[in-house]
Amino acid sequence: MKKIIKIKNNTKINYNIEKIIQENNLKGLFVKELLNNKNNYNEKIIEKSIRNRTRNFKLNNMERIILKINKIKINSYGKIKNKEIKLNNNLNIIYGKNESGKSTILNFIFNILYGIQKNKNGKEISDYEKYKPWDSDEFSGKITYELDNKNKYEIYREFNKKKIQIYLMNKEKKYQINLI
């Protein structure tokens, strides 16, 4: 039996502002403002404030970037074929019965972004062998995502060929980005 609990938008949530400050390594006047107004914040205001504060924040010499996945298109990966998933702007929950493909979708996202491993790395079989379709030569897919600077990108990957194509998308056209 499925149970979905929906929290109405007018629900008052008590945020642990101190924990948010610590987890996001926030400092200075921004922290003072959060603490002084902690009873007047809602989720969107806190999220926007943290995003604005951390936009140029450096963590281990790397810029922190927020990535929002808009669409997942799996041509063939594991047992999943011709599946398109459109994600909304809020929290998305992928649920289903055991062995229905939830972990496969998660691994697809990781492998489309970083590539698929052909070596075992201490596992029984490699991710390449685990997710390579048995009944097709097609082994590919794409994701469309947006960064916090509002740039939209599409990544298409053919896992058999280690072929990756990245596109910057605007309203009229998509531009291929060539990797060195």
Detailed description of the structure:
The chain is of the alpha+beta class and 180 residues long. It is built from five helices and eight strands, in the order H-H-H-E-E-E-E-H-H-E-E-E-E. The chain has helices at residues 17-23, 29-36, 43-54, 102-114, 127-131; strands spanning 58-59, 62-63, 67-77, 80-86, 140-147, 152-158, 163-169, 174-177. The strands form two sheets. A six-stranded antiparallel sheet has the order 4-3-5-6-7-8, with helices on one face. A two-stranded antiparallel ribbon has the order 1-2. The longest helix is centred in the middle third of the chain and has 13 residues, at 102-114.
In short, what is this structure?
The chain has helices spanning 17-23, 29-36, 43-54, 102-114, 127-131, and strands at residues 58-59, 62-63, 67-77, 80-86, 140-147, 152-158, 163-169, 174-177. By secondary structure, it is α+β, with helices and mostly antiparallel strands.
Key terms for this structure?
single chain; 180 residues; alpha+beta; six-stranded antiparallel sheet; two-stranded antiparallel ribbon; globular; disordered N terminus
Mass-distribution shape: globular
Structure summary, number of beta strands: 8
Q: Provide mean pLDDT, rounded.
A: 77
CA-based gyration radius: 20 Å
Number of helices: 5
Poorly predicted tracts of residues: 1-13, 55-59
Binned, the helix content reads 25-40%
Question: Could you give the topology of this structure?
Answer:
Blueprint: H1 17-23, H2 29-36, H3 43-54, E1 58-59, E2 62-63, E3 67-77, E4 80-86, H4 102-114, H5 127-131, E5 140-147, E6 152-158, E7 163-169, E8 174-177
Antiparallel strand pairs: 1-2, 3-4, 3-5, 5-6, 6-7, 7-8
